[in-house]
Fold each of these.
Amino acid sequence: MRPGQHRVLQGHPWVFHGEFRDLPADLAPGEIVEVADARGRLVGSGYLNPESSILVRILTRGERHPDPEWATAKLHAAITRRRQEMPDVTDLRLVHAEADGLPGFVLERMGGYAIVSPDTLGAQEVLLPWLLDEIRALGPEGVVLRAVSPSRQHEGLGLELRMLAGDPPRGPVEVHEEGVTYLVDLLSGQKTGHYFDQRRNRSRVGALSSGRRVLDVFSYTGGFALHAARGGASSVTAIDSSSDAVTALRRNAERNGVVIEAREENAFDALRTLSQARERFDLVVLDPPPFARGRAHLPAALRAYKEINLRAMRLLPPGGILSTASCSHAVSVEDFLGAVRAAAADAGFTGRVLGIHGADSDHPVRIEIPETDYLHCIELVKE
Ligand code: SAH
């Protein structure tokens, strides 16, 4: 590793290919290797994937060698912290990869099942075998391998969706979130999972919805829309371009006994049509997919954030609320605030910032790993 105040020396686990000076010729995928600094001092050990631009992800520091015992301790530390901090939450992310010291390894609990999502080769071939028995010992109905993240292609991995232990669920499982139930198809390849990171922001929208006309844009399976309806919204309209998501949203609305008007439509077009028709909503939620998948996409992403926020602002009467999110890893909270501010300037929107929030605490943010601070949700009221 090259000298200087290197981020890896400060606790960041990623070491990129180009950062190594002396690389052995025979690098085996999934091998545990030791990493030294420029002076030859041992930094730590991690797993290796020659296919990935992140050649090594550090697991342990100094002399400690990673092994199943080490991984088990990390797993239990992650679960114990959540039990203490979120004792009433039954469905949640139990392990959030790098942010919990287990790079690439995601574990969630939904409807009594354990769902493992390894995003890297090392998570799948090293950490998963070390942890599978421990996960089974947690007593889930079954363990599902749900390795469907598009980021796996950067690791040379395909997609996998199957049971690792136990019988498959007979139908969708129920995910409970503060009085709302989501039906989730664990084994369907369709995008009907559930994102836990917005839990707290959804519940905030639910609490703000009473008596309001609510518009949930990029609604997916109804994350925000269902909380708005439960919170006493006078009407709820949801927009998503995916027919699977809209179908799942309708099923969720029925399961929760609420009425939501779900439209399968491109959000950019829908927002334009609504503002041309001079429609008004008292609360608008914007929760788009990541517009920037890397720093190279940042300018285009910021233009897209500005665009949708500007359109959403035009739908709000005085007193109207905008809850707007970015989940792009490459977009900092300052970048995102800048885009929202530029939208406000163009829309002639003035108002108060009710809050700027991140992900719920089952998606911890680590100061030494900026990438863990990926979700930003800004709430504004028009005044
Ligand atoms: N708010 C949701 C999560 C949104 S995920 C929740 O709380 O669960 C982002 C969603 O945006 C996905 O469902 C995807 O289908 C949808 N989407 C992506 N591009 C879109 C577009 N151009 N117009 C409308 N929806 C879009």
Note: The CA atoms of residues 293 and 328 lie 7 Å apart.
Amino acid sequence: MNVILLGAPGAGKGTQAKRLEESRKLVQLSTGDMLRAAVASGSDLGRQAKGVMDAGQLMPDDLMVQMISERIDQPDCRTGFILDGFPRTTPQAKALDTMLSGKGLRLDAVIEMKVDEDILVDRITGRFSCIACGAGYHDKFQVPVKAGVCDGCGGTEFKRRADDTEETVRTRLEAYRGQTAPILPYYLEQGILKTVDGMAAIDEVTRQIEASLAP
Ligand code: AMP
């Protein structure tokens, strides 16, 4: 099964993708994570990505399409994948369709995680994660049981994303509104768009996603 999680920054795509990885044995393909890895490696792509990401803008479509195409060719994607953060523009969505049909693959579902934009700035600027295991936390909504210690692995070092500042978040939300949300009608026409309530509690969102994927 191949699915897309579509939603504004902070909608909870990453959290739900991790859960789908477990429950459905799918691979999470996060273009944001791939770009952050490129930044950390100091490659040419990483240097370009750093400037674009820090400004809250989008990377060029052709680069992103190529990156995801190469990733989908890896053997671990054969059992299915969850696209998280891709496609983000109509040209990316169209290129994805062409690319998948060229590989003999197709999309089974596009899940829109609908959220109220007003709460997103708060959600995003407060989030942090465990460096060791990646577990996600939030200053207000999900603090570790013991302050400074990861509930999952006991790690004591945490990180915040460089682009989770209020100013950058506002630009990222504009990019979502202007360039990503217009993809939704494209998938609606294809009859594969499902919408879940991204404002609900995390477990409830998972339940709605699982229900929307049920045959
Ligand atoms: P994310 O982790 O999905 O929020 O992505 C972080 C940043 O990476 C975005 O704000 C963009 O600058 C860049 N990025 C990630 N995915 C894409 C994409 N599909 N197209 C263009 N830029 C992207």
Note: The radius of gyration is 17 Å.
